[in-house]
Amino acid sequence: MNAAHPAGHSWEVSWSPPRFHSENTPTLDVVNARWWLFALLGLNAAWVTDLFVLGHELSAPGGVLTVLGRLAGLYGALVLVLQLVLISRLPWLESRLGLDRLTQWHRWTGFWVLWLLVAHVVFITLGYAAQDGSPVLAEVGTLVFHTDDVLLATIAFVLLVVVGVTSARAARRRLRYESWHLLHLLAYLAVVLGFLHQVSIGQDFTGSPAGRLYWWSLYGLALGLVAISRIGLPLVRNLRHRLRVESVVAESDDVVSVVITGRALDALPARAGQFFLWRFLTAGHWQEAHPYSLSAMPDGRRLRITVKALGDGSAWLRHVRPGTRVLAEGPYGAFTAQRRTQRKVLLIAGGVGVTPVRALLEEFAARRDDIALIYRTSTTGSAVLADELRHWAARCGARMFLVLGPSTAIGRFGPVLGPRHLAAMVPDIRHRDVYVCGPPGMTDAVRGVLTELGVPAGQCHTERFAFAA
């Protein structure tokens, strides 16, 4: 059934009676993972404070100012370790919270690290200047150049400031991803230099065996997680699976699908809705890693990605030859059926954000779930994978709405993805899990509409286009 509507957009609907199953598997994985992080952070903050007090730091030279400075430094080191854990891509944590959420938390805590370290530097300098009766600037020179390993700490602080400044949105937009990533790796050097400073003059190390055991264990565990998850696991998986390009299929003038095969892919823990960081070993591009979602449910034999040419970063994929070796890091993402809490599902896709939605549709269709699908795009020609969506919708009796028109399109009930339109298309929306993937502006707007419609936050699952595309 097709129905045209005013304002230059249309709804294309494929419908048949829904089928239900009795499975209802609400999951608390996201809540549990979040509370585990909060609990561990709080517990470690309590330990740091306890070790500080037991070390008689309250009687330290320089009075209250140096006490505050050392506490700020210890808390800054603790939050820095938390940052390492957040970005370690630990599979248990990442599969529950998602790389996009962990990356946002990593960025937010990064600014806390900077402010705590600034407080550490300022209070320590003012405290010792007051104790020595010397000018503040002169005290800075004394601390940096005439105190054991403070120069190392100064270098670490400068490196973290560089990383923080280049991570600000305004600076990030001006940098190529490869340049930004190379600068960001300086943070690991800063961690090592800061730890060496803490080992040499930190009271927790020099005067407390319990403090030494605690901080060595904490840093060792965090760096070990990074080494295992970011280096060891990808290395083992790539050696085992030996991925190669099987075929390249042009979906449209500016969209291409790449089919990848390898050995023992049934042992790769990939799910529909997830993505990998892909590195195609071709001349001029082997050093680039790109996040692309799977655009078909993994079947144990092949993986498929579908990519829109957005400048030089991905247009070259059209010319990748079959047989090209591929390195992949992942799978990543919590945009999976594992997060479903209701028997009914609504999938909402915008633009090329349809790729993980297409894979999820296939998985939900295989499970015979009650599915509704909304695909928002500007024109029929830009509706990537629309034929495949219709195919799977027909197979499982899903209701499919293809909503066309500009982002400002107004329909019979207001904005085409506004609350009245969504409620008209899917009247039982409050009783569904809603999966949304698209450009950040669209995703945020739809989340706001879902809140307005009374859809519980635990039933709303999003993937930002920056990771999914």
Automatic annotation (TrEMBL):
GO terms for cellular component: membrane
FAD-binding FR-type domain ranges (all copies): 238-338
Keyword annotations of the record: 2Fe-2S, FAD, Flavoprotein, Iron, Iron-sulfur, Membrane, Metal-binding, Oxidoreductase, Transmembrane, Transmembrane helix
Main location: membrane
Transmembrane stretches, start-end: 35-55, 67-87, 108-130, 150-170, 182-201, 213-233
Domain of life of the organism encoding this protein: Bacteria
Gene3D superfamilies linked to this entry: Nucleotide-binding domain of ferredoxin-NADP reductase (FNR) module, Translation factors
Membrane topology: Multi-pass membrane protein
Keyword Oxidoreductase included in the entry's annotation: yes
Subcellular location: Membrane
Cofactor entry: FAD
Cited InterPro entries: FAD-bd_FR_type, Fe3_Rdtase_TM_dom, FNR_nucleotide-bd, MRET, OxRdtase_FAD/NAD-bd, Riboflavin_synthase-like_b-brl
GO molecular function: 2 iron, 2 sulfur cluster binding; flavin adenine dinucleotide binding; metal ion binding; oxidoreductase activity
Identification of the protein by name: Oxidoreductase
Species this chain originates from: Amycolatopsis pithecellobii
Organism taxonomic ancestry: Bacteria, Bacillati, Actinomycetota, Actinomycetes, Pseudonocardiales
